[in-house]
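SEQUENCE-TO-STRUCTURE ENTRY
===========================
What this section holds: a protein sequence and its matching fold, both as plain text.
Question of interest: how does this chain fold, as expressed in backbone structure tokens?
***
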Amino acid sequence: MPDRRTTTKQDILRRVCHKTGFPLEDAKFIVQQFLDEITDELARGGRLEFRDFGVFKAIKRKGRAARNPKTGRAHQVPDQAVPKFTPGRLMKERLARLDPAVFDDGKYPKKVASEEDGGADG
């Protein structure tokens, strides 16, 4: 199997089902509700803090002049709200221990085997 760099929602659902024994449909409902709540709170301009994991908040990105690379035509991009995530203490600590050798091209990490995903072939 080729090296996979992206974990999908389906991958997370399988892990939740495996760890909790919940049926897939129940896990899918719970995970989707959780993600919807995060999105809804950010859309209201709220801030979400998950201790040791991190903080999500909506910030204002200032408008700017831009250029369409295909046509070369200039246009103005308006101010907009965008999500921002700041990692928490435990996440920072775990990532600080990540071996730089897993970054095969200096940009994206290789898939690292873990107990959660059943090892390298899991």
Summary: The CA atoms of residues 11 and 117 lie 9 Å apart.
